User: Fold these one by one.
Assistant:
Number 1:
Amino acid sequence: MSTFPERRLRRTRRTPAMRRLSTENHLAAAQLVLPVFVKEGIDAPLPIASMPGVMQHPLEAIAGVVTDAADAGIGGIMLFGVPAVRDATGSGAVADDGILNRAIRVAREAARGRITVQADLCLDEFTDHGHCGLLAADGSVDNDATLEVYAEMALAQARAGAEVLGLSGMMDGQVAVIRAALDAAGYSDVAILAYSAKYASAFYGPFRDAVESTLEGDRRTYQLDPANGREGLAEAVQDIAEGADYVMVKPAGPYLDVLARVADASTVPVWAYQVSGEYAMIELAARAGAIDRDRAIAESLVGIRRAGADVILTYWAREVAEWIRAGKDLA
Ligand code: PBG
């Protein structure tokens, strides 16, 4: 009787029970974060055309969204504001009664410590030109002038009760400046999530719909070149040195190599953002009958985890938490 092949790797894949025994990576609801859009001046949820299944919520709905996410065991919600009025300096971002800061207050109250309240810290939703910072006279994004506004924005978010600030603007020095501003004002407990390796990506397309932002030009002078891996690592290392509590890679799916490199090198937890375009691709392909929706979602998320993410921001957080709870076979 032949013994070839000597090593039979299929042995451990024979039955579902055998396969479960060998599963290396699991999704946990506590490590999923749900992005939530809050729109000023509406009184009922509005669907986002390019993100089927995702809504813009009125402020009045936020308490319910938070309670529901907490009940589902999700680890956090990341709030994004859609203001009624925008201007050149994004003043709605720093105003205590700006839509995002109001939403943070409502969310923190509703959370009752059961789920973390997080906020996007960036100006693009609040500026009329759509850039993440202030523009200089020549039209370029002025790094250091922007840092001053970010510090104000961080303080407004901390006052409102945000527990994790998601620094997504890609300005140099933003982590250090915001950490110093928070500490000086007595907010040393507020954590910083640095969107460290944030790429200039076409996969943010549907997000523009979600926040109704139009961009003049592009973001390539501050977001990373999709061709560069080492630079993503450099950004994460720099952010950790500046005091980031968490670092993030974004988008997730097309940047799993960067995620793996950052995860290898990081001394803080690593997050990944499965962005709007990644969401839309799977939803629309499934609607066209091209792929099995649920399996594709599960595979995309476990792939992100396998690459090294501790925490994943995903628009499917709510649904996947339900799957996990029900013990659905995610394979
Ligand atoms: C910046 C920000 C963006 C996203 C999250 N934070 C947009 C951008 O930088 O262009 C995109 C998220 C997504 O596409 O799901 N406020």
Note: The chain has eleven helices and ten strands.
Number 2:
Amino acid sequence: AREAVAVAHPNIALIKYWGKRDEHLVLPFNDSLSLTLDVFPTTTKVRLEPDADADRVVMDGAIARGEVLRRTTAFLELVRELAGRRERAVVETRNTVPVGAGLASSASGFAALALAAAHAYGLSLGAAQLSRLARRGSGSAARSVFGGFVVWHAGDPDAPDPDHTSYAEPVTDARLDASLVAVVLDAGPKAVSSREAMRRTVATSPLYRGWVTDSHADLARMRTALRDGDMACVGEIAERNALGMHATMETARPAVRYLTSASTTVLDEVRRLRREGVGAWATMDAGPNVKVLCASADAEQVAARMREVTGVLVVVARSGPGARHETVT
Ligand code: DP6
């Protein structure tokens, strides 16, 4: 096609992905489960440049260098290898999510890039193959290929080709209308990348193995609760899984702490809401922001309370769609 455009949305994990058993292939230790959001999409255009001798990346209007350029080029190399082609490309990407804020811009970014690049280089991939490809860019991107609730299988480490066994797929039997209320406490870049923080956690936290074991049980219970439409059960498992992940980081050496006193204030308020009888549970990623999980019917009430106590930007996100092509204009 020479040129292709794709759009993808971020996702927030309710059972977290934290820690890689294979860094190169981006194979995780545990299965994870997320909700793809309907806010903050990333739009990415890939155009092949037969005469260029290097890839070019333009992110939100600025020429990318350093880590963003390096990761994008490495990803394009992988696509070229799969397609058996050599042309370089220009990648133009537009985020609507505050970068580095723990709102998973790498998930929407690599899901959109995987779809656009595959198309531009003439690869025709099935959904699971596309998810596996997106995974190589950023683990959480494997899940943003799909909409709604999504499970990412860690895969079988003993399989002849473990790469083939680790992909995401939609949870088709979920009967729950849930929203995530994002409390944007800080939209700045994070001090420690999630890549580095994961590495440190796996290598040094005495709690890590236990959290992985718990995550397996959490996932099975959450799938049942999703099928039953049991909001409270889904919420309790999600909050506990997220707090457990942060506990593994706190006990790494050197410790990684993404949560701030402002995050703690929000966590306290979420508990207060529960005491008042409102079903609300917290989840946090590699940053200070807190996302409050609740039934969609309660989302505006929860958001109003969060605005009142924090005074910061609060965004209500509902279930959103998977990655899709956009026609080139
Ligand atoms: C805390 O997918 O950003 O958001 O694979 O190294 O690119 P890399 O990491 P990334 O990590 C996401 C971690 C998390 C939890 C999650 O989304 O499951």
Note: Residues 179 and 318 are 5 Å apart (CA to CA).
